[in-house]
Amino acid sequence: MAARVNGFACLDPKLAQAGHFFLSGLNKAGNTSNPLGSSVTPVTLAQIPGLTTLGIALARLDYAPLGLIPLHFHPRATEVDKSVIDYLQAKF
């Protein structure tokens, strides 16, 4: 019986493949034509099974000019942002 973390069975290291840690499609921008001018594309364990026990959550964030992500928090978690644009203002 496989160990479980957060309700998901751990991946047997002997059966792990590169595809368990990869997701195609995150290179495509989300639709930002909404009142917030932003789009969040979350990545789940169903899409990247290798994330089960790594303690990592992923999401792609897209912003239109002057777009924003509403105030939010991550209980018991850390947020790391990587910007691939010229300017992004973040307030905490």
TrEMBL record:
GO MF term list: manganese ion binding
Domain Cupin type-1: 25-80
Protein name, UniProt field: Germin-like protein subfamily 1 member 14
UniProt-listed InterPro entries: Cupin_1 (IPR006045), Germin_Mn-BS (IPR019780), RmlC-like_jellyroll (IPR014710), RmlC_Cupin_sf (IPR011051)
Top-level lineage group: Eukaryota
